[in-house]
Amino acid sequence: MNTKDKILKAAEKLFYQNGIDRTSIKDIAKESGTNIAALNYHFKTKENLIDMLFSKMLSVFDPILPDIFAMDLSLVLKIRKFIDTYTALLVKFNPYISFFIMSMLQRNPKKILNLKLFSSLYNPTGLFTQMEQEIATGRINKIDPLHFFITILSLIGFPFAMQNILIPTNSWKRKDFELFVTQRTDMIYFVAMAILNDQNIIHP
After folding, report:
1. pLDDT tens profile 124-154
2. Which of 45, 155, 158, 203 is most buried, with most CB under 10 Å away?
3. Residue 185 included in any domain
4. Which helix (H) or strand (E) holds 153?
């Protein structure tokens, strides 16, 4: 691993453990086994380091997630694929992305929303269009596609945002948490299908 990647990895760990604002350049240098001069050389400022780390995290999900909504699949298969793929990516590449998105949006929402990569990732247009077509033909309940999409995102992301509480509270190891969130995809899919198709659900 080169020096730049060591610094990014150390920053990711410390930002999650201590919070972005409570982590100093000195802390990152110590954790990465480098020095402040190396951080200044590669990133110039802490803000540049934060931006690069966040963009690197998001790049794992783009274009994989947006492409799912553009696939020629039934609505049911598209939702299932999104739930499974998003969960698998979080487990494999970055279980801390939910935390970082919330932290970054609180620090500088305009800056994050203007990132081309973020705009590309948050692009559920294909899903919304397909849902509206299904609603128009009466094949699914009349629900707001945006509410539905945010509900699915929340169901997937919440355990990852809470993992530092869930893991010790349940006496889990890392692999136990990963098994939990992977098995949870079936429940999320069941909830999604209930929202779309359950005739007993009353929508405003």
Report:
1. 889 999 999 999 999 999 999 999 999 999 9
2. 155
3. yes
4. helix 145-161
First and final C-alpha spacing in the chain: 54
The pTM of the full predicted model, rounded to 2 decimals, is 0.80
Joined tokens for residue 158: 């919440």
Q: Are residues 39 and 99 in the same domain?
A: no
> How many other CB atoms are found less than 10 A from the CB of residue 58?
21
Domain co-membership, 75 together with 175: yes
Q: Kindly tell me the sign of the dihedral angle through the C-alpha atoms of 20, 165, 155, 71.
A: positive
- Work out the angle between the directed axes of helices 145-161 and 75-92 (0-180°, nearest 10): 20
Structure token digits, residue 126: 């294909």
Listed as own residue / partner, the contacts of 39-42 with beta carbons closer than 8 Å and 24 or more positions apart are 39/7, 42/3, 42/4, 42/7
| Domain contains 203 | no
What CATH number should be reported for the domain holding residue 45? Answer: 1.10.10.60
| Domain residue limits at 31 | 3-53
Estimate the share of the chain in helix, then strand, then coil, as percent rounded to the nearest 5: 75, 0, 25
- The residue to which tokens 């049911």 are assigned: 76
Assigned domain for 66 exists: yes
Convert the pLDDT of each residue in 71-92 to its tens digit: 999 999 999 999 999 999 889 8
